Amino acid sequence: MGYLLLILATLSWSFVGILVKSASTMVDSTTITFARFSLGIVFLGILLLVKDRKLGLKLDLRWIWIGALGKSCNYLFENMAISIGYSYGNILVGPIQTVILLLVSVFIFKEHVSLRGWIAGALCIMGVLCISWNGLPLHTMLASNGLTTLLFVLSAIGTAFHVLSQKMLVQSMESGPMNFSIFFLCSILMAVPLPFQAHATGGTVPLWGIAALVGLGLITGLSFNWFAEALKRVSFAAAVIVSNSGALFTILWSYLFFHDRITGYILSGVGLFIAGLLLLNWPMRKARLAARKPGQTASDAG
């Protein structure tokens, strides 16, 4: 069951790019962001009521607000970038977020980062640069990919603050009520600019665009809960491998649904940042040795 939940979460996230791109043919990025959160809390709320008989809404914690602001920026800038760029572009958010969190660990929390961590961060940066470059001349890259890369950087900054809020809240809150509280605030925050910015992009309302918005809401509401439950049942190493493979599926869907051109530079960039993420998150041998019982051999530990 744990692996099924892990695969469901990973596949769900891999579809975000094509769903946002599809919805952008009908409505603007602000409306897409509001729909992701508002529909997300509906689906998550139903799940919590069935599971726990309560929503657990809590709005009086500072880190709930910080997480909501971060996640709102994450989705808003991500949706804007995907709307004007390629549907696979959101694969940049993960590695950029990783580098930001490394820097926050060093300069804000004064934590020690090992050589392995810095090498992983360098691989992530190289992967992002390789994808953004995509073999283009510098002036062409800045003109065509510069804005979308900047938007993904802003999105990654937002999601980094969301991750930090989860780190602070997870000790005192279950993942379901925590996400419901944050997404509830996000839906309120993103409702504020709707009367001023929201507009339809076409004269008709395509059925696929509506389905895309519903799908995004479903992913927002349920995928994080699926992933949290999966982590309780599967090894961390397996979670790292499966979740990071989502970038490959994102590229595959982009090629199959929108016929986006996938070059060797993009695949090389993905390979670089996946290597960096695996290197950073892979359990260290020291931790395995420390966890081994006295007198237990390496073969006994599995």
From TrEMBL:
Residue ranges of every copy of the EamA domain listed in the record: 1-132, 150-281
Keyword field contains Zinc-finger: no
Gene3D superfamilies with a match to the protein in the record: 1.10.3730.20
Record keywords, A-Z: Membrane, Transmembrane, Transmembrane helix
Topological category with respect to the lipid bilayer: Multi-pass membrane protein
Regions crossing the membrane: 32-50, 62-82, 88-109, 118-136, 142-164, 176-196, 208-227, 234-256, 262-282
InterPro entries assigned to the protein according to its UniProt record, in alphabetical order: EamA_dom (IPR000620), EmrE-like (IPR037185)
Localization in the cell: Endomembrane system
Record flagged with keyword Transmembrane: yes
Domain of life of the source: Bacteria
Main location, first listed in the record: membrane
Gene Ontology CC terms, in alphabetical order: membrane
Entries under PANTHER family matching the protein: ACYL-MALONYL CONDENSING ENZYME-RELATED (PTHR22911), SOLUTE CARRIER FAMILY 35 MEMBER G2-RELATED (PTHR22911:SF137)
Family assignment from sequence similarity: Belongs to the EamA transporter family.
Name this protein carries in UniProt: EamA family transporter
The organism of origin for this protein: Paenibacillus rigui
